[in-house]
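User: Show me an example of a complex going from sequences to structure tokens.

Assistant: Sure. Here are the input components:
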Amino acid sequence: MKQNSRRRTLNLNRRAFIKSAAVLGSGLVLGFRLPMALAAKSQDVRNPHGFIRIAPDETIQLLLPSVEMGQGSNTSLPMIIMEELGGDWSRIKVEPAPVADIYKNPWIHVQMTVGSFSVRGWYDELRKVGAAAREMLVQAAAGEWDVSPDECTVNHGVITHNPSGRSTSFGKVAGRAADLPVPQDPPLKSAADFQLIGKPVARTDTPLKVDGSARYGIDTIVPDMLYAAVRACPTFGGTLKSHDDSAARAMPGFRATVPLHNGVAVVATSWWRAKKALEKVKTEFDRGKVAGLDNDKVSTSLRSGFDADGFAVARNDGDAKAALASAERVVEAVYEVPYLAHTCMEPMNCTADVRADHCEVWVSTQAPGPSKEAAARAAGLPSDKVTLHSEFLGGGFGRRGEVDFVEQAVAVSKAVGRPVKLLWSREEDVQHDFYRPAAAIRFRGGIDKDGRVTALDARVVTASAPGFHRPGPPAYTEGIYNTAYTIPNYYVTGLNRDLGIPFGFWRAVNYSHNPYMMEGFIDELAHTLQQDPYHFRRSLLQGDKGRRHLGALDLAAHKAGWDKPLPAGHYRGIAATQAYGSWIANVVEISVKDNAITLHRVVCAIDCGVAVNPDTINAQLEGGMVYGLTAALRGIIHIDNGAVVESNFNDYPVLMLNEMPDVETYVVPSGEHPGGVGEPGTAPIAPALANAVFAATGKRIRTLPLNSHGFSYGAGRKQA
Amino acid sequence: MIELTVNGRKHSLDVEDDTPLLWVLRDELHLTGTKFGCGISLCGACTVHLDGKPVRTCTLPVSAVQGKAVTTIEGLSKDRSHPVQQAWIAEEVPQCGYCQSGMIMAVAALLQDNPAPSDADIDSAVTNICRCGTYNRIRRAVHRAAGKGQA
């Protein structure tokens, strides 16, 4: 992991700081830009790009390269900058950055907020940005006083020359600072001096989210705007054959029908009118090549993949085949998970205003960069003619990494020549998602005569496609090939089967299902060996490779009181994994009566390296757990005749407040580079719960959701 | 013409009778704090107060609201000073925040009726959906708000 983060960390020496001084209404401001790629434009003082702008009124405006979807980056990224800058936290104003190369995440080289990459991807770079700005401000002040910068200190935006007691402020010297050369390698604070990082800091977006003033994409209002509702072909891959809107034309507020390649949009003077008119449009579709697909066929296709050719090898230590052949005992198990929808609370939407020579887009998106490109393509304009406004996201979870709804809005606005707010119904959202792919794994574990695990052979088959994943070991084997378990003969292979159902990133992605299967199988090995599941796992975690996994596992087990007796009828389950540069463990405590599961307690521990904002981490672990718990208990998307059966929260139910268990979260103290926290929380809950169900009932749950095995659920909160 | 009072202001609106109140608030009056989540009165993102009682507006025809007083999140307080808003800030409840207008309106109505709700009362009154998983913080915030200025 360490090596991984080193490799991706940018070297500031190789990337010149570029500064610009700009006049922006309130006066001189200080801005920074990092990459060499923009050096040629550095003389353009009007260029508003940068991360920090300090105005004479002491306002510190921070342009944030990640979007805020609830994960807290509108607070944690400012904390990283401000820690080094030393400014007055109460003076910051945050806003989403526009689309530009400098805002591409340094670890993934794209302007997207995905993969729990915000803090870990920006940590080094934003510290340097803040430190460089502080150094320039101090130099400016020292220059004014004709003293050495070394004699000056910074505290909450006030620069003090200690020997003389003179002081000034950031705003007063910002203009002068903007003329100074940008330090190439500013010294960074030592962790012991951190004043913000590691402290719970109140979120910058909370006030806006308690009075209705936070603006999401769906809240966009543009003068002269029309509204669009959409119906896509229910069957994936289907196309629009014909449509008849004669009845719709008589509906109030109707303005236009816009045929799309796979559906139809109706434009009207309000969204409700558009929706009502759309109901009157008759459509005929070519249903496409997956029209016969259903869940049984998905399952059969995945499982038949176990013996197919063409596997990619993700890991091959020793000789698993030989070790299995000579094993005293071989344990075999097949696990499988279904497709899942995201159901962000804010249904998909985008507002577009396409003119002959320009296109403006307002959207809640995790992918500002790709969305801008998609808008340009749909508008038939070069991308420099597109302006994209990022709004707050009413949930992302990976769904808003896609650009399909952006393309639709741009196409419809272009067709009608007016600004259009295009909004999906919840039914469209559930039935036209990019689903968490269905997946299956066949495990074989070999145990020798001394009771040691000598071999693991895991074959992963997912309903995705190679293009979904980056190069290297197939990402769909994450959580299997890269565990910290010491098993001498370790063989992991994987295969994609693209079944024609759209698939995409779903919170924790491959870690949303692989740890469930892996940790279930590890539990099966422990059971076969009649060993305690926690202590068995410990025995497989050896040396430095297992250190952080063990740290999270031990902390969760300790806090849960693993070795202490339980109330009668209570049982525990445990699971741990790495995910997104962090290590995370869950211990759950349940009871089961008449197949009704009561979840009394969830204990979660994480080693996420430097914990930037502990309160956000707590919230993300709890929230990630809820997302995974919903999926484990009842999450399933059924495919029938190539279309999705579920349509709304009535038939795709999610966890409610009265079902919420008590959750405790703990963070392993760590000085390692920050890891992700938005997604890891989703990973270990399903296996911990399924393992607890096994402990309670003897039933090994190898497919999800739990309710398909006849289990119902209730929370176990102590009633006040 | 439909007459209704929203946050103390009277409006005469030329909309179809069957238009859900939600879309009148959002698309006609541009009060966008009230959210669309499901369209079938399940998720509660569209909750407002109608004559002081919580209602889900995505299926409530505006004709049924004729002459009544509607309070939306924008009208709950002028300055985030309502005890529920204050408790939401103190407990750092919101994540994405999209469901929170509806949550806050549901809880404000609950506390009006029941100034010191038990966990069971909260369970049965707050049936809104949050996908970010803020439920435990919501519960804490309800208890906090109940302890302040409601006794």
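The lines above are the inputs; the final block is the predicted structure for all two components together. The radius of gyration of chain A is 27 Å.
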